[in-house]
Structure formats: structure tokens, C-alpha cells
Inverse folding.
């Protein structure tokens, strides 16, 4: 069929285009990061640097301890936060997915409400500094705002409610399984797609988080990787806006150069690009609904 | 059926999530050893110097915050050394907390909101001073300065202290530094020498024209004048050069006028002449073509060998600073005489927040920054032998094997703290720099509105609207990209539509009130 061939071909072109539009910027950033600084000032960015220099990376690794430590912090919060977040999300989502759970509506509303309204930055800060003393601890990067997300709870709840047949749960109960056993041995294994989805979101959220570092940390040893990068950008932005102030203009000169910023971005991307393929295998597994005789 | 068990499961989740948070280790108690109220009895016995009475004071931990682009590696070591020194002087220890420029606003407000103790904070008229005073976040310092700040008084010129007051009270102690700005251009020395350019002949903007012509004709690959989307020689000499801008928003004061009359700068002949000249230069090819959209600092173009000069706000030693930035020798030419406005007397201050548990002690510390050379230089440059070595009287250099990039203490903010004229001078700087500062300050013309601080609160919306219009036009006008004959009238009418007149009227009202209160 000519027409289907044509659509095939169109689809291919479309996807090639989309793939390029995501990959090319990253390649460009990488190329800029290994370009000589003066070459950039003269000719701007280019995919094929006229003069290659690894000065930016050398500059960054002068102080390699800072980056290595930030990497450590980010990996720690990503692993701990993703696992903990998944566990808590599932533990909360499962009961409210069950129709025979008496407090279902109240609890669901309780979760839903947090999605619509929040107390604002200051009360949020007060809760996690005064009520629960997390300030300047690594837990301040794990818990506030990231660990349990109302939206993910509702996604999971919907999945449990629609994809796990009640019949399975009842039959397991008949066979003498306890409520927690059913959850761990039957519901969880059947829910890999949603766990993978939420897990991936969590991973990305933790990896990319810089706001918690900004708000809760004054000890620079605990800064997450993204905040290291982000604070440089925020500083540049601020000083650029205040360039009329002589002192601010003076500070501009001390900030990392264009190539260093790009090198930081490349380092910041790091292993996270491998996260998606890792989760991929859970996405493609079909949902098992065939365990019950109809 | 099994409702009960399900409920346990759900509650386990909730309890568990609380348990996790509760398990995290609590940070160390922030408050100082046992002082909850200002130590009045100690204060009564201490004299201004504080040295002899250090034993009479209770131990106290001062917390100091200020914005900085870097958190030095050896901060802890310097802090310990300073604490040791301060314990002898005023029986206090100190914690220094540099906060990123970009995070400052958020962090500062959260610290105020949570009421945690901190005792000293940086502030400036361009950095939130007005708001902090309006919200009552920082305390008036007049009494404290009288009691414990005699050293500050002996160092600072009273005119600058007056000029830094809000509603007749001092809310911050200004760093003793340059208190004026002069506007001009910075040029490449090698080309100035090559074409025998006589710098002393440059008196105003139009004197640069023949120079640019020479460069244009003889150096085809070099742009004579590099500009940036929000800065050019035009914007420099108009703003705080020919006019006192009186803070945010439109409405300015002519430098040559003797009465406190707020006018619209964009309708003045001076403005028109200046932007016309820029446009003429732009058409002649003296200005970089991407000026209106270029966001990069001008010195980068010089560094890359693409440009000859750029406009700047200057102070003594500026040629040295720019030489460092561009990596080649630079010279400067002044286009206006030094001018002192409120912006200069409030440009770098330390204030005492209302969360301080011992404001007296904070003031004693500030006082030391003005009188005690050892302490000031510790804060500025770190530890002798480790972060710098003496290379003469007041002259310092990096220790062997250390340079600006690797030094463990690189705050590099001497303009923020205390008496800058007491800070050591790097070997690469002009050794006479502080004398030049003094001369510069005393030669400056003081604005007749010195000390007036505009509070934009009532016309916030108009200011936002006019700022949008300005963003649209001023870039093009200052960089010479668009034709003033055609666009200035349109610009002015749009500004009026955005509420410029209301802002000017409000400024005038506040200025008149200020004049009445200060008997000007």
C-alpha cells in the first residue's frame, strides 16, 4: 500500500525530527563545554569548535571535592527518596483504592485537598524547621515536598482500583492470606507499570531538585548537584539585572565563564540519562489480568 | 470483613511518614549560651571600646549574613580565628553565613519569618533596604551608634551618615568606601597609545567622536564602542551623571538645578542630544550592531579583541579593575564629575535585624570593623600566611603556590565591610588607592536631594507599567539602534499612558515632605 508507506515515511521523519530536537541541544551544550573561551566570544556557539580546550572541566575539577560530594548527596537522596516515596505512596494509595475501606472518601479528599491548596512558602518552611527540625540536614532534601505527592497517590489509587480485580483479592483472602500479605505478594507484583511510572517521576524529581537546597541549607557541604549549578545561574541572573550597580558589575567578572556553565550542565545530567532505559522494561510488561477464571 | 486491618495499613503509612521525619537528627541548638535578653547590665559597664570590659559581657554567638557569589572553602578556619579574636575583644564568637545572591531574597525572608536569631545583615537601597524598614524587620540604630559606635562616628563623614537615613533614623551603618560615582568610558591603552589619543582633551561625550572615527578607519575588525542592551555611555552619563534618578521609576532631578523639582528626563534636551549622538554613531558604524539585544558584559568583547571601548560607572582604581577583567591594559576618561547621591550613601550597609538577641553586641562588632584593622582584614582576606602574605606596609600578595583561583578564602567583598580604607591592598592594585578614594569623595558634588529615599509602594503598578515601556524603548535609544526623532515622542506618550505623571507627582510629593522635614 502506497499510502501506508507514505504515512510510515512521514512518521519516521516526524520522529527523527523530534529525536534531533531533543538530542542536538545536548550535543551543542557538550561541544560548547569543550570549546576555548575566546573562540566563543569571537564566533559564538558552534557544533564544531574551532579550538578545543578542556579548561572548563579542569577548572571544575580543581575543586573536585565539591562536585563529588554534591554527587554523593544527590545519589543518596534520589535512591532513598525514590524508594521511600514509592513505599509510602503505595501504602497510602492502596487502602483508598479499596471500595470496602470505610474512611476511603475522607482520606481521598485529604489527599486531594493538598493538591489544590498549600500553606505557602513560609508556613511550609516553618513546619520543616520549627516543628520538625530538618534545617541543615540531608533529610531536608528528602522529605519536604518530594516524599509524598498527592498527585502520584491518586494516579496509583486509580491504577489499583481499575487494574487489580477485587476477585483476586477476595480469593487470596479466602485462602487465608492476611491483608498485608495480599498487598505485598499479589497487589505489588501486579502493579509494576504504575510503580515504574511513579518511580521514574520520583527519580527525576529528586535528581532535578534544587529548591529544597536553596531553602533549607546554609551548610554548603550538603548542596545537591543541581543546586550547585542553579545557584551559579541565579547569581548570574541577579547580577545581570543589577549591572547598573558598580559593585554588582564588578562581581560579574568573578563568575564562571560560559564554558564552565555548560560543563556543569553536562556533569549535572550525569547518570540520570540512564534512568529511563532502566525503567523501560517495567513499562512494556503487559498488565496481568488473567489470574482469575472468568 | 477486613476493614479494620485496612485501616491499620493506612494509618501505618501515615504514622510511618511521620516517624521518618521525627527520626532525623535535630540540628544543634541555634541560640547562644544563655543570653535571651539583651545584656543590659553588661552594656552599662562596657565602654565604647569594649576591650577592657570583655570579661563583664556574657558569651554570645553573633550570626552574620551577607550575599556572596562564593562560599569559601576555608570559611570555618577563618571563622574560628575571628571568634578567638572577638572573644578577647567583646566576648563573642561569630558565625559567618554567606548566602548566594540569587537565593538571598528567599532566604532572608524565611529567616525573618521563622524568627531565628541572626544579628547582622547586609542591606542597601538597591537591595531591599526600603522594604525592610517598612516592615520593621531591621531596627533603628541611632542610640546604639551613640553608645557603642563611637569608632564608626569617628571614621564616617557625618554628611554620608545623614544621607543614609530613612525617616530621620539610621537603619544601617554604611561601609566607608567611595561615596560618589563618575561616568565615563574605558579604552584599550595599546590603541590609545598607537593613535596618540589625547585623553585630557576628552571632556564630554561628543569629544569621543574623532577618536572613534580614527579607530573605525584604521582597525576594521574592531568595534570602537561596545554597548549592551541595558548599558551604554549614554545611559551611564544620563543616569546619576547629569541627573539624580531619585530611586526607582521615572522622575529625576537635574544635577544643575538648584530647586527640588522632579522632572521627566525623557523630555529634556540633554536626553535628546545624547541619544541623537548615539544614533549618529550607530549609523556611522561606531557601535556594535547587536547592541540592543546583546546581554554580555562589554569587557568580554574587549577581551576577545573585538572592541575598543565601553561606557561605565567609575571610581578610583577602576582602570586597574578593568585591566584585570579584560586581560589587557585599559585607561579611563571621565565624562562627568563625581556626583554623590542617596544611592551612594546607602549602597552597602550593615543592619541589625529585629531577631537579634543582643543588638548591643552586634553594634560593638560593627564598631570594631571600622576601628580594628586586624579583624577587618581577617574578614576581607582570611588568614595571614595561609590566604595572603604581607608584601609591604598594607600591601599583600598571594602565598607561594596559591593564586586567585585556588585560594581557600575568596570572598573578595571588601566594599561591603566596615572601613574599606583600612583593608589591605593587593600587590596588583594602586598602593595609593585609599588616598585617591578620600580625594574622590571630598571632590564629589553632593546632590541637593542627598538623603532622600523614594518609597515606590503607592505607585507600584505604574512603576511596573513604565518599566515595561522603558524596556521596550531605552535599549534601542541608548544603544543608538533606533532613530530618536521618530521614537522619543512615541516613547514619551507611551510612558504617559503607563502612568509616568502619577509617579512624578508622587515623587515630588515625597521630596517636598522630605525637604520640609529636613529643612532644605
Amino acid at each position: 500500500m502506497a499510502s501506508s508507506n507514505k504515512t510510515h515515511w512521514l512518521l519516521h521523519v516526524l520522529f527523527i525530527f523530534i529525536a534531533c530536537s531533543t538530542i542536538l541541544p545536548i550535543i551543542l551544550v557538550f561541544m560548547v563545554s569543550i570549546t576555548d573561551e575566546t573562540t566563543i566570544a569571537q564566533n559564538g556557539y558552534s557544533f564544531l569548535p574551532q579550538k578545543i580546550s578542556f579548561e572548563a572541566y579542569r577548572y571544575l575539577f580543581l575543586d573536585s571535592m565539591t562536585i563529588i560530594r554534591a554527587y554523593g548527596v544527590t545519589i543518596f537522596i534520589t535512591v532513598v527518596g525514590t524508594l521511600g516515596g514509592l513505599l509510602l505512596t503505595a501504602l497510602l494509595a492502596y487502602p483508598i483504592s479499596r471500595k470496602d475501606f470505610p474512611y476511603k472518601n475522607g482520606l481521598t479528599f485529604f489527599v486531594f485537598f493538598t493538591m489544590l491548596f498549600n500553606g505557602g512558602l513560609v508556613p511550609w518552611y516553618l513546619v520543616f524547621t520549627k516543628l520538625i527540625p530538618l534545617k541543615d540536614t540531608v533529610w531536608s532534601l528528602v522529605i519536604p515536598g518530594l516524599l509524598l505527592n498527592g498527585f502520584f497517590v491518586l494516579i496509583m489509587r486509580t491504577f489499583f482500583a481499575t487494574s487489580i480485580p477485587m476477585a483476586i483479592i477476595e480469593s487470596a483472602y479466602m485462602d487465608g492470606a492476611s491483608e498485608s500479605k495480599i498487598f505485598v505478594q499479589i497487589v505489588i507484583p501486579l502493579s509494576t507499570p504504575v510503580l515504574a511510572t511513579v518511580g521514574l517521576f520520583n527519580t527525576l524529581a529528586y535528581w532535578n531538585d534544587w529548591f529544597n537546597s536553596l531553602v533549607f541549607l546554609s551548610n554548603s557541604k550538603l548542596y545537591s548537584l543541581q543546586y550547585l549549578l542553579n545557584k551559579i545561574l541565579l547569581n548570574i541572573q541577579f547580577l545581570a539585572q543589577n549591572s547598573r550597580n558598580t559593585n554588582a558589575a564588578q562581581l560579574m567578572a568573578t563568575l564562571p565563564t560560559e564554558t564552565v556553565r555548560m560543563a556543569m550542565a553536562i556533569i549535572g545530567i550525569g547518570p540520570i540519562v540512564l534512568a529511563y532505559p532502566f525503567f523501560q522494561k517495567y513499562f512494556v510488561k503487559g498488565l496481568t489480568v488473567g489470574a482469575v477464571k472468568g | 470483613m477486613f476493614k479494620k486491618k485496612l485501616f491499620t495499613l493506612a494509618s501505618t503509612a501515615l504514622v510511618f511518614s511521620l516517624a521518618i521525619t521525627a527520626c532525623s537528627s535535630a540540628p544543634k541548638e541555634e541560640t547562644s549560651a544563655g543570653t535571651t535578653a539583651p545584656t543590659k547590665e553588661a552594656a552599662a559597664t562596657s565602654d565604647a571600646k569594649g576591650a577592657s570590659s570583655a570579661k563583664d559581657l556574657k558569651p554570645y554567638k553573633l550570626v552574620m549574613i551577607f550575599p556572596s557569589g562564593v562560599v569559601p572553602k576555608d570559611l570555618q578556619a577563618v571563622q574560628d580565628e575571628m571568634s578567638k579574636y572577638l572573644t578577647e575583644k567583646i566576648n563573642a564568637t561569630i558565625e559567618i553565613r554567606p548566602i548566594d545572591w540569587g537565593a538571598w531574597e528567599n532566604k532572608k525572608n524565611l529567616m525573618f519569618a521563622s524568627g531565628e536569631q541572626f544579628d547582622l545583615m547586609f542591606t542597601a537601597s538597591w537591595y531591599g533596604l526600603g522594604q525592610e524598614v517598612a516592615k520593621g524587620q531591621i531596627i533603628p540604630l541611632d542610640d546604639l551608634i551613640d553608645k557603642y559606635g563611637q569608632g564608626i562616628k569617628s571614621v564616617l563623614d557625618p554628611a554620608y551618615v545623614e544621607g543614609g537615613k530613612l525617616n530621620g533614623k539610621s537603619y544601617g551603618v554604611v561601609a566607608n568606601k567611595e561615596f560618589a560615582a563618575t561616568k565615563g568610558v574605558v579604552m584599550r591603552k595599546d590603541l590609545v597609545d598607537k593613535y596618540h589619543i589625547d585623553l585630557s582633551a576628552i571632556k564630554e561625550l561628543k569629544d569621543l567622536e574623532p577618536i572613534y572615527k580614527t579607530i573605525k578607519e584604521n582597525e576594521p575588525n574592531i568595534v570602537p564602542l561596545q554597548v549592551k542592551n541595558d548599558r551604554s555611555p549614554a545611559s551611564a552619563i544620563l543616569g546619576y551623571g547629569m541627573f539624580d534618578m531619585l530611586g526607582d521609576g521615572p522622575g529625576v532631578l537635574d544635577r544643575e538645578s538648584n530647586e527640588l523639582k522632579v522632572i521627566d528626563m525623557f523630555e529634556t534636551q540633554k536626553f535628546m542630544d545624547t541619544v541623537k549622538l548615539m544614533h549618529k554613531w550607530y549609523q556611522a558604524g561606531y557601535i556594535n550592531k547587536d547592541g540592543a539585544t546583546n546581554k554580555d558584559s562589554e569587557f568580554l568583547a574587549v577581551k576577545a579583541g573585538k572592541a575598543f571601548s565601553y561606557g561605565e560607572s567609575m571610581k578610583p582604581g577602576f582602570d586597574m579593575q578593568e585591566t584585570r577583567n579584560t586581560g589587557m591594559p585599559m585607561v579611563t576618561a571621565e565624562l562627568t564629575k563625581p556626583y554623590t547621591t542617596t544611592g551612594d550613601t546607602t549602597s552597602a550597609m550593615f543592619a541589625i535585624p529585629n531577631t537579634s538577641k543582643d543588638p548591643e553586641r552586634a553594634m560593638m562588632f560593627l564598631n570594631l570593623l571600622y576601628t580594628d584593622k586586624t579583624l577587618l582584614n581577617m574578614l576581607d582576606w582570611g588568614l595571614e600566611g595561609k590566604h595572603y602574605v604581607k608584601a609591604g606596609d598594607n600591601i599583600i600578595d598571594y602565598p607561594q603556590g596559591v593564586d586567585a583561583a585556588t585560594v581557600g578564602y575568596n570572598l573578595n567583598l571588601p566594599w561591603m565591610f566596615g572601613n574599606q580604607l583600612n583593608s589591605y591592598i593587593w600587590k596588583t592594585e594602586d598602593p595609593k588607592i585609599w588616598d585617591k578614594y578620600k580625594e574622590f569623595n571630598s571632590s564629589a558634588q553632593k546632590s541637593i536631594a542627598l538623603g532622600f529615599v523614594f518609597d515606590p509602594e503607592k505607585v507600584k503598578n505604574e512603576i511596573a507599567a513604565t518599566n515595561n515601556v522603558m524596556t521596550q524603548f531605552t535599549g534601542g535609544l541608548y544603544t543608538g539602534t533606533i532613530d530618536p526623532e521618530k521614537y522619543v515622542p512615541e516613547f514619551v506618550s507611551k510612558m504617559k499612558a503607563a502612568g509616568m505623571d502619577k509617579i512624578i507627582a508622587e515623587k515630588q510629593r515625597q521630596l517636598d515632605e522630605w525637604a520640609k522635614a529636613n529643612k532644605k
Observations:
- The longest helix of chain B spans residues 3-23.
- Chain B is about 40% helix and 15% strand.
